[in-house]
Amino acid sequence: MPSQTHPVHLEQLKQDLEERLPANCTVYVQAWPAREPDVVTVTVKTYQVNTATLAGVELPFVARRWKQKTQQQVTEDVDAIVQAELVRGLPPKGFEGFTRRTLH
């Protein structure tokens, strides 16, 4: 997860998002510079104990759009999208993995 290729520190983004999520959610912030050099994927997962359901969504972001933003601004932008997904309800994990949304 080489954050030096992106204008924000990805580990810090992960930590900041974790602080804003419900306790039953997990967040992953990943980048694959060799495969998708300008894309950072934020994956949000939740496990519902009472129904034994794993749900989640992959949210890809175009990292170069973050160039003119501070770490805090990026966190707020990403968090707004994550919170909107949580309000909508995360889709259950399918046979092919988690639902992947379009680029933000």
Can you describe this structure?
With 104 residues, the protein is an alpha+beta fold. Helices cover 28% and strands 32% of the residues. The protein is built from 2 helices and 4 strands; from the N terminus they run αβββαβ. Strands 1-2-3-4 form a 4-stranded mixed beta sheet. Helix 2 (71-88) links the parallel strand 3 and strand 4 (99-100). Helix 1 packs across helix 2. The radius of gyration is 14 Å and the shape is globular.
Give the biggest beta sheet: 4 strands, mixed
Helices and strands, in order, run as HEEEHE
Main-sheet strand order equals 1-2-3-4
Roughly what percent helix? 25-40%
Oligomer: single chain
Q: Which regions contain 5 or more consecutive residues with pLDDT less than 50? A: none
Number of helices: 2
Mean pLDDT: 89
Q: Quote the beta fraction.
A: 25-35%
Which structural class is indicated by helix and strand composition? Answer: alpha+beta
Q: Cα-atom Rg, whole angstroms?
A: 14 Å
Shape: globular
**Separation, N- and C-terminal Cα atoms:** 19 Å
